[in-house]
Amino acid sequence: MPNSQQYILPLFSNNLYALDNFINSLSNQVAYNSIKNWSVSWGSKPYEFTVLIYGPPSSGKTYLSKIWQNLSNAFFIKKDLDILSAEDIMQYNAFIMEDIEFWDERKVLHCFNLISECRKYLLMTTGSLASNFALQDLSSRINAVVRLEINQPDDELMTKLIFKYFSDQSLKVSDCVIEYLLINLPRQFDQMIKLLGVITHFALVHKRAITVPLIKQVLK
């Protein structure tokens, strides 16, 4: 059975991090457009070179970050990196910090300040804006940057996801199957993808077509 932890939007694209491959709808359109038009419009004062994308797990934050890395030649700063060096700052014009809620706050603040002072571009991601940073200086900066939300998937995105999931595995499903899944799958990306994997695995192992009765059997 596939490991749902490895899936990001779009599904199963084998590192082809391109704008044209990203599945977008109203639920992620603002973040998508910002990445697409980053060279024209990015942040706003006082941090006009910084943007924060937030959304639930498996919602496409990493994929959008990878797209932006390709577009801007950005440097991915690792959480366990000892320190962002002057050489890194000189070599790159753009930087990415993922899942900042899990970082040491002092490291986030250091990187943020250094990148901002050097007027370099910065993209940060987080799973939630509910995180309360203990460092007041960090909280004030995070609250002052442009924040782009990726929402739970709407019907349009769910339909595209389900269709792409099965097509990428050369599996055909009927419209009634997609409609049934729209009603019965959870709206959390990671749970939805995991269940699609369970359904597909069951169908392949038992050499059965993916039908509504099969899905009912798997989900019961």
From TrEMBL:
InterPro entries: Hda_lid, P-loop_NTPase. GO terms for biological process: DNA replication initiation. GO terms for molecular function: DNA replication origin binding. GO terms for cellular component: plasma membrane. Pfam families: Hda_lid (PF22688). Residues 169-219 form the Hda lid domain. This is DnaA/Hda family protein. The lineage of its organism: Bacteria, Pseudomonadati, Pseudomonadota, Alphaproteobacteria, Rickettsiales.
